[in-house]
Design brief:
This protein is an alpha+beta fold and 127 residues long. The chain is built from four helices and nine strands, in the order E-E-E-H-E-E-E-E-E-H-H-E-H. A hairpin with a 4-residue loop joins strand 1 and strand 2.
Length: 127
């Protein structure tokens, strides 16, 4: 994926998750860089809806043919939705990490925590 293909409508963590704010709901997924390094994702398990999370908490894990990786939230709040598609089609994380392959939605209690994350340009520059 070319640097210019990294969506600019979200922010990015050091641990390669993207966070997209819409009102007080933050959708979280894995970046193309993370997905490409994992190779084929074979399983994804997120903490259930209703779980309270703090910034930097592990909110789930993804397994690939190469490894298992933790997924982190950069924002505090409550998980309000899990991408139900992942149970039957974890590969959608590989094919569409910035769209259909999203992981969870968190109702943020402090969206200002996202200010610490990187813009698309800064994230690309760090790779």
């Amino acid at each position: 994926m070319a640097a210019s293909d990294t969506p600019t409508d979200r922010v990015y963590s050091e641990t390669h998750e993207w966070h997209k704010l819409d009102g007080d709901v933050v959708t979280i997924g894995l970046t193309r860089f993370a997905v490409d390094n994992l190779t084929d994702v074979t399983y994804a398990e997120m903490r259930p809806a209703g779980t309270s999370v703090a910034a930097s908490d592990v909110i789930g894990e993804v397994e690939s043919v190469k490894t298992t990786s933790d997924v982190y939230s950069a924002v505090s709040g409550e998980i309000i939705e899990i991408n139900s598609t992942l149970a039957d089609d974890p590969g959608c994380i590989n094919s569409d990490p910035y769209g259909a392959g999203w992981l969870v939605k968190v109702k943020a209690t402090n969206a200002g925590e996202l200010d610490a994350l990187k813009s698309a340009a800064d994230y690309d520059a760090s790779l």
